[in-house]
Amino acid sequence: MRIGLDIGGTKTDAVAVTDADEIVGRIRRPSGHGDEAVVADVVESVRELCAASDVSAADVTSVGIGIPGLVDTANGRVLHAVNLGVESLDLASVSSARLGVPVVVENDVKAAALGAAALRGESASMAYLNLGTGVAAGIVIDGAIWRGSRGTAGEVGHISVDPNGRVCSCGQRGCIETLCGGGALARAWGRPGSLPVRDIFDAADRGDGDALRLRADLFRGAAAAVRVLVLSADVESVVIGGGLTALGDRVGDGIRNALITDAKGSPFLRSLHLDERIELLPSGSPAAALGAALVGAHTPQKEIAAHG
Amino acid sequence: MRIGLDIGGTKTDAVAVTDADEIVGRIRRPSGHGDEAVVADVVESVRELCAASDVSAADVTSVGIGIPGLVDTANGRVLHAVNLGVESLDLASVSSARLGVPVVVENDVKAAALGAAALRGESASMAYLNLGTGVAAGIVIDGAIWRGSRGTAGEVGHISVDPNGRVCSCGQRGCIETLCGGGALARAWGRPGSLPVRDIFDAADRGDGDALRLRADLFRGAAAAVRVLVLSADVESVVIGGGLTALGDRVGDGIRNALITDAKGSPFLRSLHLDERIELLPSGSPAAALGAALVGAHTPQKEIAAHG
């Protein structure tokens, strides 16, 4: 049995996955904050999941962890996972020592990309576009995460598409993330409320001018990200997930309409049928945890020997 | 011996390549125009090259052809090669029947990408960015051309980076090609002369305002293309070629400076060291013809049987 964990800023999603890639158990629990709490979260999630799924700890062959932040996959180290209060943590080796099984750590967006591809049965070429606080994509080619040369594959959030756009947290102007990142939208909105993007949509529905502009920005930013992914890596489809997609069709239809509108004046764009090649990840999808389990199952043999 | 041809709008470059990927002969001759002239060009180029390189026709095991336009590689068909006056031509099968050897046809930019990677000894991950009349890139991953799902891999020329930019021939506004494509620059310049981009550079050197703006556009467009390639496919390096690079360092230094300037305000961009990851293809490089020869050498066995 392979276990996959998706450790988010507020909750951890854990799934038990058979050798046939079937999910046979799932639990969710609040995430910890800080190095020790994150490690305890891993150990406790595995224990709870085994109990809930009637899986013996001895039957667990691997654990994969998807986590936000910069991940050094070769060494299982997590860097700058700001939302989890982790600056640098050898998560794989510390967790593996506690659990007695091999542990692999992966960036959460890349894990979700792999999981989404598995759930769709699409292994040839797919991108997963994550619209969360920030914006990034994971690319899956021939059933494997596309890693690129230096870890910036799928970093479409920081491609500028407007030289006169808002300044991005990265220092550039007009990045895709300034248009469709939850953090950037909340800053541009600037009004109180715990769910700023939902507030923007509700206010736009009431005709508020600022909200209408920001909602349109979200749609055109996501549409730009889809175009970049297709016109560079040429993925067949783009699955869109992340916190902002909790708004469901209100987001999905808007992005689809933006793709259609942008293609109106361009026979070239129309020939790409981009509006038919996007799909929203269903709310509550276990894609990221499943992807983590799949990553974990590909533990190199030497690592199994080291911890076995 | 493998032969590679790069059929351009004005001239055809032909190389003879050993099994060790070494170029042992090269000729250049004017290109033909129209279906029959292009086929005759292929046959004549092979004949001349064999004579010049002291290679017997019987020793030629494959011919690869790089050609501008849309190429259906599976069927060896060329579509919409406007500069060559070809609308639809079964170039592989017709040429193969005349030459008695297997022939493979490939888009010229993709062939040049493969050839440039071979010349640099860079096989892991590289993009070749072609700044010609239009703008497109070829991506080489693990020594093979990255094809993507629908033939739009590397079509970075038609990613919009300015919603208020000039209208592109594709119908969108502010495409990278409107900034750094030779055709778009010539249209925007609008003055007589057979080498408009050179004229723009010369006029910019004299302080002409329009020319200064267009030259800056070229640099920022190419810099944007480099960023897109690194932040999507995450290639290690970007080799830049095409007609506009005939201006050598005047173009190369400008693109490098644009990458440095754009990164000034962004620690994220600075961390990518993009200015150190670009390189101009030397003038007269046989990259495209060599790449065509390499593509031709990978003829599927069934095709050899069919024409052998």
Q: Regions of chain A with pLDDT < 50 over 5+ consecutive residues?
A: 301-308
How large is the radius of gyration of chain A? Answer: 20 Å
Oligomerization category of the chains in this entry: homodimer
Separate helix tally of chain A? 11
The tally of strands of chain A reads 13
Give the count of structural domains of chain A: 2
Distance from first to last alpha carbon of chain A: 16 Å
> Largest interface, per-chain counts?
A-B, 43 and 43 residues
The residue fraction in helices of chain A comes out at 40-55%
Sheet with most strands: strand arrangement of chain A: 3-2-1-4-8
Features:
homodimer; 308 residues; alpha/beta; Nucleotidyltransferase, domain 5; 2 domains; five-stranded mixed β-sheet; 11 helices; disordered C terminus; ATPase_NBD (chains A, B); ROK (chains A, B); ROK family protein (chains A, B)
Structure summarized in a few sentences:
Chains A, B: It comes from Microbacterium profundi. Chain A is of the alpha/beta class and 308 residues long. The first copy, chain A, has helices at 35-53, 91-99, 108-120, 176-180, 182-189, 196-205, 209-232, 249-263, 267-272, 287-297, 301-307, and strands spanning 2-7, 11-17, 23-30, 62-67, 70-72, 77-81, 86-89, 103-107, 125-131, 135-141, 144-145, 237-241, 278-280.
Structure description:
Two copies of one chain form a homodimer. The first copy, chain A, has 308 residues and is α/β, with parallel strands linked by helices. Chain A has two domains: 2-111 and 286-307, ATPase, nucleotide binding domain (Nucleotidyltransferase, domain 5), CATH 3.30.420.40; 112-280, ATPase, nucleotide binding domain (Nucleotidyltransferase, domain 5). Chain A has eleven helices and 13 strands. Chain A has a five-stranded mixed β-sheet. In chain A, strand 2 (11-17) and strand 3 (23-30) form a beta hairpin. Chains A, B: InterPro entries: ATPase_NBD (IPR043129), ROK (IPR000600). Chains A, B: This is ROK family protein. Chains A, B: Belongs to the ROK (NagC/XylR) family.
